[in-house]
Write a structure and sequence with these properties.
The protein is α+β, with helices and mostly antiparallel strands and about 450 residues long. The protein has helices at about 5-20, 40-60, 80-85, 155-160, 160-170, 215-230, 280-285, 315-325, 360-370, 385-395, 405-410, 435-440, and strands at about 25, 40, 65-70, 90-95, 105, 125-130, 135, 145-150, 175-185, 200-210, 240, 255-260, 265-275, 295, 300, 305-310, 325-330, 335-340, 350-355, 380, 400-405, 415-420, 425-430. The two termini are about 40 Å apart.
Length: about 450
Amino acid sequence: MTDKTEKSDLMDKIVSLCKRRGFVFPGSEIYGGLANSWDYGPLGVELKNNIKNLWWKTFVHGRDDMQGIDAALIMNPKIWEASGHTTAGFADPMVDCKKCKKRFRSDHLPEDTKICPDCKGELTEPRMFNLMFRTFIGPVEDESALAYLRPETAQAMFVDFKNIIDTMHPKIPFGIAQMGRAFRNEITPGNFIFRTREFEQMEIEYFVREKDWQEFFEYWLDQMHQWMDLIGLSSDKIHHLEVPDGERAHYSKRTVDFEYDFPFGRKELYGIAYRADFDLKNHMEQSGVDLRYFDDMSGERFLPHVIEPTFGVDRTLLAVLSESYTEDEVNGEIRTYLKLPTIIAPYKVAVFPLLANKPQLVEKAREIYNDLKLEMRVAWDDGGNIGKRYRRQDEIGTPYCVTVDFDTIEKDDTVTVRDRDTLEQTRVRASELKNYLREKIK
């Protein structure tokens, strides 16, 4: 079997697990679906929220130089004019197949390709296609009511810059952080949740003096590496790509992409850009509002420059799933499990009664379950035999399973704690269980 086939099989296994175990469902499925639309199920939304909460805790709550906001999805359309999104700067080259009518991004096809990769029909000449979703405000759908779903979270942080300065009085250098949905009318989305038309971002705009931008660019490169290590991504699967002149976004003076070895190939995971003062300067000129920062220590008034670390939530989740998907052999059978870092696993612990038809076991297990769930996310599982329950919890990435058996009731009040990764089983007193698990999870 070739390496390419193995990676394709791995992707198929991840997609299958996500559907089977409630991580990700095809969107609008009972109506035949909607191309490249995905819904996060009960476990997927827990994993996703854990990633977002950890990011917020790390980069906002864990720092003294960061302010968080949550801005509107639809903003004044003049914002997108000032930022350059309504021009060719936010458009992709598109071609159509004259035979099968499929559309492709021409920059994703081999250079000078004139033939459809699917049906070998003739392709049209490339034309630019703006990626923003258009909508209208109010009952009349004309140009005066035109608006857009935001294609990124960044611009709101520049537009709210003055509000942050006036209310929070931050000292430079400082950052503004935001998590939220963005929308891009991609020509060719695909690869499961990797590229979709509706997605979530976690972004930071970090404001510095112009003379300090290189120092803070390197600093944030390191911070992003520490984040990837925290969520369990292997360093040997992460690669730096210094984006050359001519390929960077129109606002960027330097961009580094972090690429990850996904099952379908090496693709962009995160990015960091030096935006200089492009955004604040344009918004100040277009709005007529002074967006300069005043340093009351030096008496200077100036436009800060910006370092922008960008993290995609959906791509993070896909990278985490790709990294953690594991198969091993236990007693002659293949065991599939997600080796998720405990800090982001949907459930931290699962609690079982050894037998679901023994009231005394169920009562004790419920008592333990109710106590633990006051402090951590806990699963209750009493379906099937104990082996099937272990396999089920392994497959969704639960790090620890707690089993209440007859020794718990009749002998020494101990329970069995099983480790997902090592399969080791330890007897722990029920009265000490919470502290034991607390230390393991921490």
